[in-house]
């Protein structure tokens, strides 16, 4: 029987794996907190369905096929357009779908953002309709044709920063910025991005909403931000027909630190699934390696 002895090579390898694990956790934390055009804001999907018969199963498969064809068309169009709306369907169901990117993204950025949208929606929503996936820089929305008459003023999601700024300067600068956005929307501009003092406000209407309808939607978003996020130094408001975000100073919205409200309840769940999956994979790999190493040590005895 041989004597056990320390193996410098195995020790260094274990240390290397530990460093990889810690570094992966750092990357995970950095990615979930980083705010960019690909940051997930919210998702809305109907609940998972329980199928009662073959017809319902067949209809579900039909929806999945239609939604998949929509996604492919979105990807094709996003290289040349920042907004696209179309119908897709068969003899059972017609689905209205659209995607839109922020107007200040270039076409390459729009295509990359749309690709991210399709990945998330495919994995998280699938054939369930209606559904919407909203990232910071783009969103997609699809619903059955009979659901197209949803009010453009319907609030989908709202988040207000916990941090407040109660000062006369804040009220004056935010009041002026809000008034300018309302004026911008009423003038027919579908995208408004402006700053005044420390206030920065951005608003955008869905691509098929113009003129007074766009202005009405932006006014509603401003009203919600003003009334329900009073004195918050950052907020985001998403209606069916438009969305608005503002910040005062350098503060930005963080979904982990700020207060949200609306129908976009899938966001934290999705982030948790992704984060948990990555961590679980890393841990399983390390556990497997150590079990294999211990097995080799037993063979040496």
TrEMBL record:
Which InterPro entries does the entry link to? Answer: Cell2Cell_Antifungal, GNK2, GNK2_sf
Q: How does it sit in the membrane?
A: Single-pass type I membrane protein
**Organism in which the protein naturally occurs:** Nicotiana attenuata (Coyote tobacco)
- In this chain the Gnk2-homologous domain maps to 45-147, 152-251
Entry protein name: Cysteine-rich repeat secretory protein 39
Q: What is its main location?
A: other
Entry's family note: Belongs to the cysteine-rich repeat secretory protein family. Plasmodesmata-located proteins (PDLD) subfamily.
- Pfam families noted in UniProt: Stress-antifung
One GO cellular component, as annotated:
plasma membrane
Q: What are the GO BP annotations of this UniProt entry? A: plasmodesmata-mediated intercellular transport; transport of virus in multicellular host
Q: Where is the protein situated, by its record's location annotation?
A: Cell junction, Plasmodesma; Cell membrane
Transmembrane stretches, start-end = 270-291
Keywords, A to Z, come to: Cell junction, Disulfide bond, Host-virus interaction, Membrane, Repeat, Signal, Transmembrane, Transmembrane helix
């Amino acid at each position: 029987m041989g004597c056990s002895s320390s193996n410098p090579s195995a020790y260094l390898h274990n240390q290397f794996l530990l460093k990889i694990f810690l570094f992966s956790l750092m990357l995970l934390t950095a990615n979930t907190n980083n705010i960019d055009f690909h940051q997930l804001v919210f998702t809305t999907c109907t609940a998972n369905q329980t199928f009662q018969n073959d017809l319902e199963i067949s209809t579900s498969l039909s929806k999945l096929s239609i939604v998949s064809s929509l996604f492919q068309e979105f990807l094709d169009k996003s290289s040349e357009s920042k907004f696209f709306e179309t119908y897709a369907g068969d003899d059972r169901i017609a689905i209205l779908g659209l995607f839109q990117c922020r107007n200040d993204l270039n076409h390459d950025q729009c295509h990359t953002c749309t690709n991210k949208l399709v990945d998330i929606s495919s994995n998280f929503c699938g054939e369930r309709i209606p559904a919407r996936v909203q990232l910071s820089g783009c969103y997609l929305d699809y619903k059955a044709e009979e659901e197209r008459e949803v009010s453009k003023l319907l609030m989908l999601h709202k988040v207000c920063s916990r941090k407040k700024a109660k000062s006369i300067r804040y009220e004056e600068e935010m009041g002026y910025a809000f008034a300018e956005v309302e004026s911008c929307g009423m003038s027919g501009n579908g995208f408004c991005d402006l700053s005044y003092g420390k206030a920065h406000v951005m608003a955008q209407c869905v691509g098929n909403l113009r003129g007074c309808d766009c202005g009405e939607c932006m006014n509603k978003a401003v009203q919600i931000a003003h009334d329900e996020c009073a004195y918050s130094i950052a907020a985001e408001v998403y209606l069916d027909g438009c969305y608005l975000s503002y910040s005062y100073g350098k503060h930005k919205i963080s979904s982990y630190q700020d207060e949200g409200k609306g129908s976009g309840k899938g966001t934290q769940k999705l982030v948790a699934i992704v984060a948990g999956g990555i961590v679980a994979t890393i841990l399983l790999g390390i556990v497997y390696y150590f079990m294999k190493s211990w097995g080799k040590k037993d063979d040496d005895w």
